[in-house]
Amino acid sequence: MFVWATMTVLRGRVRRFAVGAVVAGFVATAALNAVNPDALIARTNLSRPHVDITYLSHLSDDAVPTLVDRSSELPAAQRTRLLSLLARRHRPQQSWLSWNASRRQARAALDTLRH
Known about the structure:
This protein is an all-alpha fold. It is elongated, with a radius of gyration of 20 Å. The protein is about 70% helix and about 0% strand. The model has no long low-confidence stretch (mean pLDDT about 90).
């Protein structure tokens, strides 16, 4: 943004800066959605020798499918504790206004364990 500001505002093209700033915001948001930071954190932590189960259980719903899929890599006691903590925090959806895709995917991942 600093370079863009230098190229536009300092040359008197304030409107062009505003358009570029909005586009940069959309690009950054799309990049964060594609990268999925919480799932990346979950994958990274599950590949380490010491896994902090409590920390992983507090990640957002974006991480739950990754945690469920890769939980088989954990020792049995840690796997049981992680899945128990994840299942405990998910409650039935109250209304359609509280719906979101991450929560639905997390619930679906946890439901696969029950069947």
